UniProtKB/TrEMBL annotation:
The keyword Flavoprotein applies. InterPro entries: FAD-bd (IPR002938), FAD/NAD-bd_sf (IPR036188), FAD_monoxygenase (IPR051104). GO terms for biological process: secondary metabolite biosynthetic process. It comes from Pseudomassariella vexata. This is FAD-binding domain-containing protein. SUPFAM superfamilies: FAD-linked reductases, C-terminal domain, FAD/NAD(P)-binding domain. Residues 14-380 form the FAD-binding domain. Gene3D superfamilies: FAD/NAD(P)-binding domain. Keywords: FAD, Flavoprotein, Membrane, Oxidoreductase, Transmembrane, Transmembrane helix. The keyword Membrane applies. GO terms for molecular function: FAD binding; oxidoreductase activity. Pathway: Secondary metabolite biosynthesis. The lineage of its organism: Eukaryota, Fungi, Dikarya, Ascomycota, Pezizomycotina.
Amino acid sequence: MATQTQQNKQPPLQVAIIGAGIGGLALAVGLLHQGVPFTLYEAAKCFSTVGAGVGLGPNALRAMEEIQPGFRKLYGSISSGNVTPGKDHAMMDALLVEEGFGEKRGWKPVSYGAACYERTSAHRKDLLDIITGSIPKENLRFGKRVTTLSQTDRGVVIAFEDGEFAEASCAVGSDGVKGMSRGVVLGERWPELVNATYTGRYVYRAVIPMQKAMKIMSKDLDGHERAGDAKMFMGDQCIIVTFPISKGKECNMVCFKMDDKPWMYHEWTKPVTKDLMLSDISELGVDRRLVKLLEFANPVQWALHDHLATPTYFSGRVCLLGDSAHATLPHQAAGAGQCIEDALVLSRLLGLVSSPNQLETAFSVYDGIRRPRAQRVVRTSREAGDICALKAPGIGDDMDKIVANQCQRYLWIWEHDLLDDVVRAESEFRSRTGKETPGQQPTGSLVLAVAV
Ligand SMILES: Cc1cc2nc3c(=O)[nH]c(=O)nc-3n(C[C@H](O)[C@H](O)[C@H](O)COP(=O)(O)OP(=O)(O)OC[C@H]3O[C@@H](n4cnc5c(N)ncnc54)[C@H](O)[C@@H]3O)c2cc1C
Ligand SMILES: *[C@@H]1O[C@H](CO)[C@@H](O)[C@H](O)[C@H]1NC(C)=O
């Protein structure tokens, strides 16, 4: 039996998470470990795994291991590195997308990476599987598209497309770059910053059986399979990235096409004919082996948008997490990592919240710690995009300078001290809520939570 002395009884905390991408799922696992009640609402009927390959840097892996101890081991069982031995720390081999990969200009492929970096990529589906494995089914609601979020003095009221309503103490909008929660947070004060910005590039994406990819790409002069190791083929009109996924059984390809016109199509994915897709790329003088790989792609142009400026990640009891806050160009392969870092910091803060009236303080501390770093990733990913498009100021198409830049530019992302973020977040929350630090004697009237 529980005996409780409660004064100023507060309703129990109930967090609504909107969107079950990597960000929302990582937060769900974090809240599960912190004992914070939540419900995750996802518009789709099941997890969406569009986009195939995703690579996690050392910061992303550390953050996920902190959220879910044992994650790294699971990730090891689904991720793939370079096939060539001794290239564990090589992020990419730098080449040119033009016929002959730059050999005609005398360029010999060079790898870039760092000692702290371990080359790995996974299939999105496998990644979501190992994250969702621990979330109880009753906390997940699929087929629930949120249409409006309104704030009341008791929390938030969530309306769904199917006519249902739900209440929660707060909502975390992890509904992606096109999500509706961003409008709720920014719409009144910064209407011009709600919509994401077209970055002037779209991608075609392919997953190719590794045997076929190796046959098409053949071996390089050193006798290594070109398709077996992660590669960045740079060019001013087109950039192509290939890397192994699915334990080396498949090769993931992302083909970026520069586009100087505004995106006019009413959707962000535009189906085209296969012929149009192939001529769109082959007419740029792209190496014919890469065009052959492109034959495996979905003939869909996927427009890339980002959120360069986001003046706040929260408003009242609604908070943004992941791409809804800081969608980024993928040129630093760092977007998902920032979603996971958000989830780490926010789940720890929500774990400290003992009454709903502390939620805004938790969101404000999260905003102060996460926003500068995540927005810097968005900014520098644009720079990285310019570098790979051979048009960065002072670098241009000088491949030696490009490689030198690539060897340095990720260190602040990868080596960041995440535990320090968590410690700073927790201590700032405690000082702003007047909460005792552990070890101190609690004072005043306290809520006794007694297990039955
Ligand atoms: C080509 C490309 C390559 C990339 N490669 C990498 C990489 O190698 N490494 C890396 O770290 N990052 C990479 N990224 C970035 C990474 O994919 C994203 O940062 C990450 O997937 C975003 O996750 P998210 O959970 O914020 O949003 P999303 O994955 O977009 O998930 C949002 C979810 O919310 C749901 N939703 C939307 N609206 C509603 C609503 N109204 N109600 C309910 N649910 C809703 C959606 O259905 C979806 O499931 C890449 C991105 C691109 C485009
Ligand atoms: C944002 O996008 C929506 C939908 O595409 C559009 O209707 C609206 O006008 C845009 N808002 C701004 C400020 O550009």
